[in-house]
């Protein structure tokens, strides 16, 4: 016979996607946090997850460039932003889609937190994982993120350099204190393969992030080398995780560990 009201309600609830927020943070800028957020999201989508990307780096948004969605404008529906589609199966919302390119965003904390809320409360129905690219460091945005949106966990990106590492560990501590468990630490720009002779050098050293993570009792997720192809493809809006080869595999490996 026809299903009763209770059965219909259960079916509707089962249909509702349980959304997990994974925040990507760093102690300082320029360590590859945005690059990692993009490529994690793309790798997760390739592995069959329904993923969305929120660019919470309100003052320095880069996800429109990284995902090749520059110039697209999100529409609003029922007072909520509709994420912009990207060619990689990862819809995205970024301040870059709401401001003119190169336009400086000079907001005080509360306004930036308001913008964060707009991005996170967009039409993310259907997204099972929301990857959030945080600003570097530990400020208002991170606090709003933790208090209001309760991420399932944070991934911390660092270079192998001592100073970057110290900042990264400070950020990791803030997340733990704020109730967001650190999923693990990723060491980026670890080792450089010379495109001419192939010799691998270590401009920032290597292994430091792994040792620091271990000291703090946090999982170490893996390392991504400094590779000119990563920079070139990222700048062109074609995420390396969408391609083939060792770097795509490295991002896929991180994505598998994070979605476990
Ligand atoms: P952050 O978000 O920490 O400020 P970005 O992701 O914007 O850092 O990266 C800073 C610059 O470094 C970008 O030009 C990016 O393409 C480049 N980059 C990041 N990771 C790598 C890597 N593993 N190899 C080469 N270039 C990288």
Automatic annotation (TrEMBL):
It comes from the Bacteria. Keywords: ATP-binding, Hydrolase, Iron, Iron-sulfur, Metal-binding, Nucleotide-binding. ATP binds at residues 27-34. GO terms for biological process: iron-sulfur cluster assembly. GO terms for molecular function: 4 iron, 4 sulfur cluster binding; ATP binding; ATP hydrolysis activity; ATP-dependent FeS chaperone activity; metal ion binding. Belongs to the Mrp/NBP35 ATP-binding proteins family. Homodimer. Binds and transfers iron-sulfur (Fe-S) clusters to target apoproteins. Can hydrolyze ATP. This is Iron-sulfur cluster carrier protein. It comes from Novosphingobium endophyticum. The chain holds residues 58 to 317 of 325 of the full protein.
